[in-house]
Each structure stands twice: as structure tokens, then as C-alpha cells.
Amino acid sequence: GENVEQHPSTLSVQEGDSAVIKCTYSDSASNYFPWYKQELGKRPQLIIDIRSNVGEKKDQRIAVTLNKTAKHFSLHITETQPEDSAVYFCAASTYDKIIFGKGTRLHILP
Amino acid sequence: DTAVSQTPKYLVTQMGNDKSIKCEQNLGHDTMYWYKQDSKKFLKIMFSYNNKELIINETVPNRFSPKSPDKAHLNLHINSLELGDSAVYFCASSSNSQTAYGYTFGSGTRLTVV
Q1: Rounded-to-integer distance, Cα B7 and Cα A82, Å
Q2: How many beta carbons lie within 10 A of that of residue B78, not counting itself?
Q3: Is the pLDDT of residue B59 over 80?
Q4: Could you give the percent of chain B with pLDDT greater than 70?
Q5: Which residues in chain A touch residue B94, judged by CB atoms under 8 angstroms apart?
């Protein structure tokens, strides 16, 4: 079955700097890669996604890249702000379910 | 209107009890899921139903039994609760069972077994 690895598990960046979270997946049949943000005590919420026929997608301060050959995908957050502090999950979708990475706890330092 | 709603939000119960968690979605989605999030925040799929039919049953103890009376509802019944069942349980739904696009999560049920 699909296995999604996510790094780092914890990331601290100075406010205004960029943050990068990286993931790899194992099943070459995966074709949809969403990213979720989970604030403390809240539900995971979709922030951006990318499909396998696209290499990069951007939405304001966040961007995702996908390398299907290497089975890598990444989340980039630029000009980080205090409200970006949360746990971020990458995921890969294979047919009928989404498999999540173990999450990255992002701390934005003042 | 809440798109995916779960009840109860909090559940504290003793070991050995039986409890149920309910989930309802008003998005018209065909597929619903149960995920378990443990203390380390790991989100692990448990079950998936498509149009009331079970399509995914991961390695979950058979004390956990999902039930889908219709495609808008997916309930989770847990028998003989154990300490290790303490977690946050999230219901989710998606519009397409072929590729799970458009996942929407419920607000979660925090289960504490004492």
C-alpha cells in the first residue's frame, strides 16, 4: 500500500522567512497530493493541492511542487506570519483513500 | 451550515463500556471515512464507505464497527473500550471514491477512556 514520509517533524522559522516541508510517497499510482493545515484543537483543513499532471502550483504565499519521477512533493510558505503556526500534513491519494504523512509542527518565531 | 458534523465533540468513558460516534455530511458526497488521530497527531484511516457500502477496512480491531444507514451518515460503534482507544476520531467525506478528491473533515470527537 501507499506510504507517505514527511520531513521535518518540527520546524521553527523566524517570522518573515520561508518554510519548506518535504514529502515522499511510494505508490506510483498516486495522482493527487493535498496539503492540510491543522491548528490546535481544530480539524485539518485543505490549504492547497496538486494533481499528478502538474509540476507546480501557487496560491499567494504558499506553493507546492511535485516531482513524479522521484516521487517527491514539497510545500513552500514564503513571508511566514504568526498565523502560519500549525501542524501541516502532506498526503497522497491512491484510488479510494488519502494516506497522510506524520505531520510537521511549524513554529513561527517573533 | 456545518458541512460535516460529528457528535459528540467530547466523550469521556470508562474502560469496558460501549460507545457510538455519529457523523453526518450535507455536501452530497458519495464517500465517507473515519480517521483516528493519536496523541502524536498521526492521522490513520480506519474505514471508508461509498454509497453505504464498505470499501476500506484497515487493520482495526473488530471492536470497532462502522455503520452507514445512508450515504449522508456514517456512524462508528466501539465495544469494550480500552485505554489505547483514547484519541481524536475524525469523520471525513469526499466527492469521488475513485480518487479521493475534496476531502472535508468533521470537527472531531475527542474520546478519553479512563
Answers
A1: 31
A2: 21
A3: no
A4: 92
A5: 98
Q: Which residues of chain A have pLDDT under 50?
A: none
B57 at A interface, C-beta within 8 A:
no
Strand runs labelled E in chain A: 4-7, 10-14, 19-25, 32-38, 45-51, 56-59, 62-67, 72-77, 86-94, 97-100, 104-109
**Per-residue pLDDT tens over the stretch B2-54:** 799 999 999 999 999 999 999 999 998 888 999 999 988 899 999 988 888 88
Residue of B nearest to A33 (CA): B101
Contact yes or no for A32 and B45 at CB 8 A:
no
Please give, rounded to a whole number of angstroms, the shortest distance from the CA of A14 to a CA of chain B. Answer: 24
Q: Looking at the partner chain, which of A34, A96, A102 has a beta carbon nearest the beta carbon of B103?
A: A34
Comparing CA positions, the residue from B95, B90, B105, B91 lying closest to residue B31 is B95
> Which residues in chain B have Cβ-Cβ distances shorter than 8 Å to A52?
none
Q: How far is CA B42 from the centre of its chain?
A: 15
- Taking a C-beta distance cutoff of 8 angstroms, is the pair B20, B81 a contact? no
Cβ separation B33–A31 shorter than 8 A: no
